Amino acid sequence: MDPERNPAGKASQSGDDTAVAAVPVEATASAAPSGDAAASTIAEPSASANSAKKKSRTRPKAGTHPNNVRKLRQGAMMSKAELARRAGVSPLTIDRVEAGCPCRMDTKRKILEALGLQPSAAKQVFPDLETP
């Protein structure tokens, strides 16, 4: 910091360098302990809160429900958009299902019908299904 300038960055009018230099030193000295203490108390909870959030993740990761939708769709020479249109769902839903994300039973039924399969083929397309 330039000793001839005040904290606002303007030139000192009095020309007294010691008065201008003393203000920031006092402000820095008095603000530093309380500022550092406040910063350390604020930083610690956020760091522990972030680690707690990572440890308590309850939602399973994508891909935990493998299926054969992509293979069957490609075998039928169908794009994701075409399958989505025929099934009456969004293309994003098809992306998620093919990635292995869990979906509703109704969505699985719609996809089976759009692929031209019987409901009895559900176990071959979605191996994770529990049939009664």
Q: Tell me the quaternary state.
A: single chain
Q: Give the overall shape.
A: elongated
Strand content: under 5%
Total of DSSP H or I helical runs spanning 4+ residues: 6
Radius of gyration from the alpha-carbon trace, in angstroms: 32 Å
Q: What is the overall pLDDT average?
A: 74
- H/E series, N to C? HHHHHH
- The termini sit apart by 77 Å
What is the total number of structural domains?
A: 2
Largest sheet, in brief, is:
none
Which bin fits the share of residues in helices? Answer: 55-70%
User: Low-confidence parts, pLDDT < 50 over ≥5 residues?
Assistant: none
Number of strands: 0
Q: Quickly give the structural class.
A: mainly alpha
What does this molecule look like?
The protein has 132 residues and is an all-alpha fold. It has helices at 17-55, 69-75, 80-87, 91-99, 105-114, 122-125. Helix 3 crosses helix 4.
Throw out a few tags for this protein.
6 helices; 132 residues; mainly alpha; 58% helix
